[in-house]
Amino acid sequence: MIRLPTLSPLEHAAFVAAGLLLYVLVTRARQQRRHPYAALAWVLGIAAFPYLGVPLFLLFGTRKTVRPSTPRQPVPAGPWARLAPAWATGLLAALGVPEARPQAALRFHADGAQALAELRALIASAERTLDVCTYVLGDDQVGAAVADELAARARAGVRVRLLVDSVGSLRSRRSHDARLRAAGVRVRRFMPALRNPRRGRTNLRNHRKLVVADGLRLWGGGRNLADEYFIGRAGEAPWIDLSFSAEGALATQAMALFEGDWRIALGLRRASGVPYAERALRHEALLHAYQPADASAAALASAPPAASGAAPSAQVALAHWVPSGPDFHEDVLHALLVSAAFHAQQRLLLATPYFVPDEGLLEALLLAAKRGVRVTLLLPRRSNHRLADWARGRAVRALVEHGVEVRLLPTMLHAKAVVVDQALALCGSANLDSRSLFINYEAMAACYGRAEIDWLAGWITRTAADGEPASARPPGLLRDVLEGVVGALAFQL
Fold first, then answer.
1. Which helix (H) or strand (E) holds 380?
2. What dihedral do alpha carbons 32, 33, 37, 41 form, nearest 10°?
3. Residue 421: is its pLDDT beyond 90?
């Protein structure tokens, strides 16, 4: 019979004190700011259940992998800078994001069949390199089709790299790995759940979604590579989602970000020491020097706009790839969203499957509504994560009480998009919840072109018409208590 050691009350108190001291030292030493709910949950967990709380904190408690501030970039000042709002481009430059560049092409996909056709065409177009990052690679028709096409490109001599989040693709159980690796595809799992904590943190998930061909063509957005995002599961309609295709600097910047993620998948100690913006510049220079066959797209990716001698046009597809996550010292997307809410003058349109904002973002949205900004929030009436639906209740009612138009769609919405006035549009992988904005690796395309802003604004407005208005009616006592409990853990949902 195994006898467990017993501790005296004094020894137990000393262990609790040591656990709390460890929490303070780790948080301070790594200069990690925490959501108040997260900090309270960790402190209470360590104090109440120290023998479970301390190991869990060591495994899951790290939120950032970068301690020093990300090097700031020069404030955009060229001809194209006049086409983008200074409050957005200046902020992003200060947070280490490369400047926006004109794209050779940029188009959105609302239809799943169109999105899948664009994805397959991009994969087939790869001649030298093909880099894929996804949260989910499904064990289904779409997942198998994508795996087959990646294998075909690898057999054709293309360098193919596939980065899949280990938690997001648990259900696929490596079902495609054998034929992918047999064809020469290099496959890595991002931070497996069971691994040496010194090599990564299980809690830090890679939610970014991108496919880059030859460093010049990009397919990205909110869609994972599984049936429900394109054609629907058997007997079900596909989810409402968005993706996009681009040629030019967006692809180059996305490839630079992928290079960093690819190294991190081997362990945090293998992370690149070169900042994201500098990696993007290096990739642009290489493409410009060694890919003359793609001169038009490479020129748009790397040449300064003044080189053409033409005056900047408001019709140009001006955009850049904006990441956020543990590999950035600051919470880039959260800062951009809060700033957008404070700068909005006419409209603020938002679409997200999960709405669990922190107090700062919620207050910014409420203040925008109080200032007279037309705020529209699009949500599914019932998402695929019931806890997230419970956690959003109080925030949704607060918005409705202050005049925000919250529309609940009868089917699953998975798109992530934001439109601010006629100034900025965002589309990508980040949900409007604390996990996406503070913990996950995420990325969004920030667009400043008139056509892209109009397209996303029109899509959100048309889609919102299919929903029903959310209610501000207070729930019953039990529901209110449960929402509060779930909301306290919202940073992990």
1. strand 374-380
2. 20
3. yes
Closest CA to 362 of 396, 401, 413: 396
Q: Which two tokens stand for residue 439?
A: 């913990």
Cβ atoms of residues 104 and 300 within 8 Å: yes
CA distance 492 to 377: 22
Please give the average per-residue pLDDT across 213-232, as a whole number.
97
Closest of 151, 98, 207, 101 to residue 429, by C-alpha? 207
C-alpha distance across the termini of the chain, in Å: 40
Which position has the token pair 């690149």? 272
Amino acid, single-letter form, for residue 200? G
Residues in CB range of 214: below 8 A, 6 or more apart: 125, 126, 127, 128, 129, 130, 291, 294
Mean local confidence (pLDDT), 56-75: 71
> Which residues, 6 or more positions from 163, have their beta carbon under 8 angstroms from its beta carbon?
131, 132, 133, 134, 188, 190, 206, 258, 261, 262, 265
Q: Partners of 445 in the beta sheet?
A: 321, 427
Rounded Cα distance, 444 and 429, in Å: 6
Query: Comparing 226 with 303, which gets the higher pLDDT?
Result: 226
pTM over 0.85: yes
Residues near 457 by beta carbon (within 8 Å), at least 6 away in sequence: 347, 349, 419, 425
Residue at 62: amino acid letter: T
Least confident of 15-29, 189-203, 286-300: 286-300
How distant is the alpha carbon of residue 144 from its chain centre?
Answer: 24
CB neighbours (10 Å) of residue 40? 12
Structure tokens at 72: 């700031």
Mean pLDDT for the stretch of residues 198-203: 60
Gap between the Cα atoms of 408 and 467, Å rounded: 5
Name the DSSP letter for residue 236: S
Q: How far is CA 102 from CA 52, 124, 135, in A?
A: 52, 25, 28
Q: Which of 108, 97, 378, 106 has its CA nearest to residue 223?
A: 108
- Compute CA 1 distance to the chain's CA centroid, rounded to the nearest angstrom: 50
Contacts of 266 (CB under 8 A, 6+ apart): 188, 199
Ordered alpha helix ranges (H), 30-128: 36-48, 50-60, 86-94, 112-125
Residue with tokens 């899948």: 116
